[in-house]
Amino acid sequence: MTERTRSTDQPGSYRRRWWMLAVLSLSLLIIEGDATILNVALPTFQREFDASASAMQWLVDSYIVVFAGLLLFMGALGDRFGRKRALQAGLVIFGAASLAATQAGSMNQLIATRVIMGVGAALIMPATLAIIVNVFPRGERVKAIAAWSAVAILGVALGPVLGGWLLSQFWWGSIFLVAVPIAAVALLAGAWLVPESKNPAASALDRVGALLSIGALALVVYAIIEAPERGLLDPSVAGTFAAALAFGTAFVLYELRATQPLLDVRLFRNWNMSVAVGSIVLLFGAMVGMGFLLIQYLQFALGYSPLQAGLRVIPVAFGYVVGATVTDRLVGRFGARRLMTGGLLVVAAAFVGMSFAIGDQTYWALAIAMAVLGIGIAQVMTPATAAVMGAVPGANVGVGSALNDTARQIGAALGVAALGSLAKAIYSSEVSVPAAIPPEFADSARDSIGIADQIAESVGGPAGEALREAANAAFFDAFGWAMLVAALAAFVTAALVGHFMPDSEATNVEERASLSAGPKLAEVIAE
Fold it and tell me: Do 17 and 135 contact (CB within 8 A), yes or no?
């Protein structure tokens, strides 16, 4: 059997490849749309389960940590045992976990189902891209990946809207239930349309490396989330940071010595690769952390319903689509280094704009800043993704796509943990709970704006209104500072890209298409 597929010996001779692309795009749609659907439902979960701010962060990050930690391993698994098998197993796991989530009776149970969803997603995502790169010939690959990315962007845009509509019509479990029939359709159609492929020279699975990478990521996220409540000097927090460092160091040392490593860390000697991965981590961290806080602002501070809030986050996706339409030409004209540097500066400016737009309790200034953010992201992600995929040997496209996806998910996990924890710390220190609020409620009101909103509603009267105003004011400051920190991170990354990234981007369309994923692999998904 060749590296291409069982169905063909000639690249591109698989006649059902465009129907296959629809199945792969649908498979990606459920794991990307799931994240944005969840974001718009966070305030609902907070009310339903009386959840703390830390629990809300874990509801998001439990999925992302497992997703990110397993991506490289699952990409290698697909390369070795079959990408179609990996895809179908992931769909079964994701669909079953989504169904189980609808029956959760507590936040702990819901978080547990999210962990299982992360396992399924880690099987699905690298398999979809690897199959596309493996089946489509070079002349069609860019077009196929562009269509695949467009469907993913559609999921980003429609996820919050669909989630808001479902919450307005049905109970909270409907946002998970909707994934079950989609997974079933993708599974059945894929059994017929998706050809099997694998890398016959794939290396043995690096189980030790996988465990070390998951341990390092989970520990650092746990420490970041718990630090605002317990303090950085708390023995459990400091000890967890130290353990995360130990796991991370052990992972690097083990991978350097392993004969068949999960990730060849020597790849990061390539400055294109290192800078590109760093940019992806930063962008997704800032973007997903922003989304985590923004939904709470729209629903709690501005009083929008889940559906209304979902509609109001669309400008990010709209700006991205606009930016992506010109990115290909801009890469050819200016090169990757200049385009990424400029894009990161645009991202930094957008975050500064959001920090000032948040305080006047209006939406339109915020919408403009979100659209600008989307445009800037498009100018960074396309050349960054191409650089990552271009640094990985073609036979290991599963691992290459998984590395790109891992960078995104690590950024998302750290972004929710870091920006969420920063906002929580500032909010808790600044919120002034009125004396009329019963003492047993005061500490809870300082935990998050969502809990303060619930308490204000139950207390009612002037005391409740005073608490709501105090909570909103504190959250405005917390969100503003979080956005300024995100802007600073984008500015520093722009400086690093401008200084260290080689300006050697191909200027010919055919040359750029020869990169494993092509420049159109613009999969900026706002988790």
Answer: yes
DSSP 203: P
- Alpha-carbon 337 to chain mean position: 24
Q: Which two tokens stand for residue 128?
A: 């979809």
- Backbone phi, psi, residue 51, to 5°: -85, 145
Encoding tokens for residue 79? Answer: 């390369």
pLDDT, one tens digit per residue, over 30-88 is: 887 777 788 788 888 877 887 777 787 788 778 877 887 787 778 778 877 888 888 99
Q: Which amino acid is at 393?
A: P
What the block records as the tokens of 270 is 């390539």
For residue 409 the two structure tokens come to 């998910």
Q: Which pair of tokens denotes residue 416?
A: 């929710």
- CA distances from residue 196 to 10, 135, 192, 199 in whole angstroms, order as listed: 15, 10, 11, 11
| Helices first, then strands: H and E counts in the chain | 19, 0
489, 286 Cβ separation under 8 angstroms: yes
- What ranges make up the beta strands (E) of 314-449? none
User: Do residues 338 and 503 lie in contact, with contact meaning Cβ atoms separated by under 8 Å?
Assistant: yes
Which residue in 68, 184, 186, 87 sits closest to 130, CA to CA?
87
- Answer whether 111's CB lies under 8 Å from 58's CB: yes
Distance, CA of 501 to chain centre: 24
Which residues in the chain land under pLDDT 70? 1-14, 138-139, 141-142, 145-146, 149-150, 152-154, 156-157, 199-204, 228-229, 231-232, 328, 332, 359-362, 386, 389-402, 440, 503-527
The model's pTM is 0.75
The answer to whether 370 touches 321, Cβ cutoff 8 Å, is no
- Encoded tokens for 56: 């809300």
Q: Which two three-digit tokens encode residue 350?
A: 């957008």
Give rounded-to-5 percent helix, strand, coil for the chain: 80, 0, 20
Alpha-carbon distance of 426 to 436, in angstroms, equals 23
Note the pLDDT tens digit of each residue in 132-141. 877 777 667 6
Which H/E stretch holds residue 117? Answer: helix 107-135
